[in-house]
Amino acid sequence: MSAKDFITGIKELCAPDSVHICDGSEGEFQALAKLLEEKGTWQPLKKRPGSFYARSDPSDVARVEASTYICSAKESDAGPTNNWKDPIEMIAVLEPLFRNCMKGRTMYVIPYAMGPKDSPYTKFGIEITDSAYVVCSMKIMARIVKIEEGKDFVCGIHSVGMPLEKGQEDVPWPCNKVKYIVHFPESREIWSYGSGYGGNALLGKKCFALRIGSKIAKDEGWLAEHMLILGLTSPEGEKKYIAAAFPSSCGKTNLAMLQPSLKGWKVECVGDDIAWMHFGKDGRLYAVNPENGFFGVAPGTSMDSNPNAMKSIEKNTIFTNVALTQDGDVWWEGMTKVPPEELTDWKGKSWKRGSAEKAAHPNSRFTVSKKQCPIYDPAGEKPEGVPIDAILFGGRRASLTPLVLESFNWSEGVLLGASISSEITAASEGAQGALRHDPFAMLPFCGYNMGDYFQHWLDLEQPGRSMPKIFAVNWFRKNSQGKYIWPGYGENTRVLKWIFNRLENREDGSKTPIGIVPKNLDVTELNISKEDMDSLFVIDSTKYNQECLELKSYFSETFGERFPKKFVQILLNWQSHF
Ligand code: GTP
Ligand code: SPV
Ligand code: MN
Question: In terms of pTM, does the model score above 0.90?
Fold first, then answer.
C-alpha cells in the first residue's frame, strides 16, 4: 500500500476535521506546544528551557497489557504469552471504534525512521494520530523523515478515542476507558485506541521496535530486544559494548548512563530501552538503538543515582505525571533526599511533605532526545551499529539470584534469559510487586510465539560466529529487613569491571552448577560488610532445586511442544547438581 492510499483510507474511516502531515520541524513543534498549552494538556516549565509538564488522565498512566493483542492469522503463532484474536474478528471490533473517532480533531501523519541515518538496519513507519502530545513526543523519540516512494513502512493508527461533537469542549488529556493496543504481525500493522500514554501511543517504541520488530527479526534472522546498549572503556583505554535486558522499570536507563564509581572507567550510552542486533560479516553481533530519545522513569532519578539523566533533562524535555514545585519546577520521589515542603501532585492536588501518598506517579516519565545525554556515544550513529561483547539478563528479585553470574556457554546463557522472573512494576497496569516470569524481559513485547523465540535465540549460535558471553545480574537482592543489600547505580561499575575482565580472561571466578560467580569482586572503598557481600553470591541448593522444578513446569505447561528440547536437558543437568 502506498502512503497516500494509507492516509486516504484512515482519513475516510476516522473522519477528522483536518489533516496535518508532519515535517518534524522546530516550528511545527513550537506551534503544537502552543496548542497543547492552550488546551491545558501541558504547561511550560519556568526552570527548564523548552520543557513542558503534562498530567495524564489518572486512569491512563501505564501500558495496558490486558488490552494488548497479537493478531496473527493462527493463534499458535501469537503463542501462549500473548492475547490473541482472529484478525478478521479483531477488525470487526476495531472498525466501529475507529469509525469517525477523530471527529472534531486534527489527524496528524508522522512519517518516521527507527534506527541511525543511512543504516541498512533502519526501518520506517507512519503513525497516524489525533494527539498533538503524541506528535511532540514522537519528534523526540523517533526521527521524523520523508519516506521515499516505494520504501516499506509499518502502518500505525492511533486515536485517543474521544471524538468531539460540534460545540463539545475538549479535555486536557482525552482518552477512553476502552483501550486496544493491537498488532497484526503478518501485515505489519498497529492499531492503538483509547490511550495517550507512552508505550500505548508512541507506536515506534514497544509496538513497532519490539512487537512487530521481533516478528520481522525472526523472519529475517536478527534480534529486536528490550535491551540497553552501553560502551564500557577500561582505565587502559580498551572499549567493549554490552547489551542488557531487564524488565520494565528494572534499571536499564540507569545502567545505560551510569556514572562509574571506580576511577578510570568510562561508560557511554548508545541506548536505554531497545536494541536491534544483527550478525556482521565478521561473525560478531552488532547493535543499533532504533530510538532517538529516552522515555525514562522519573522516580528514583537524582544527581546521586543518575547524574547523566539529570543533566540530560535540564532542557527540551517533556515531563509526564511528575509533581510540580511551587516555583515551577518538577519533582519526584528520590529526586532530593528531603522533599519540598509543598507540591502539586501528579493529579493536580496540593501535596504536603510527609503525606502518605506519592507526589509523582511511580510510572511518571521524562521524554528527552538521546543527543542531550552528556555521555551519549557518537558510535550510536554508526550505520553498522556497535559490536556486542556481552549480554546481561536481569530482573528485580529480592532473593535467590546472585548479583552476577557468568554462564558457561551460549545455550545455558539463553536459558538464563528465558528463566528471568521479576517483580511486577508500575510500568504496566495490574498487580504490583508480584513475581512473574518475564523471559528475556520480553513477556509483554514478543510479537510471536515465545517458544519459537527461544529456539530463534538458540539457533543464532552457528559456526563462524563469535557469540557474546552471557551474564545474569540482579541489583535488587534484599536483606531480612527488606533493604537492598547492593548499593547499585554507579556502584554497578564494580560488576561491569568484573564482566569486562572475564571477557579478557583476566579475572578468576568460582564455579556453581549454573555458572561462574566472582571470587574477588572489587569492593575497595565500598562500605559493605563481608557478610553482606557473601550473601549476594549465595546459591542456595534447596531453593535452586525448587526453582528448577518450578521452571520446568512453567515452561512445559506454558509452551508445551514449542519449548526447546535443549532447554529441558540443561534444566535436568542443573537440577542434578543441586
Ligand atoms: P523502563 O523504561 O520501564 O523499561 O525501565 P528501565 O529498565 O529503564 O528502569 P530504570 O533505569 O528507569 O529504573 C527503574 C527504577 O529502578 C528507578 O526507580 C531506579 O531508580 C531504580 N533502579 C535503577 N537501577 C537501580 C539499582 O542499581 N539499584 C536499585 N536499588 N534501584 C535501581
Ligand atoms: C516500558 O514499560 O518498558 C517502557 C515504558 O519502556 S513504555 O514506553 O510505556 O512501554
Ligand atoms: Mn522499557
Answer: yes
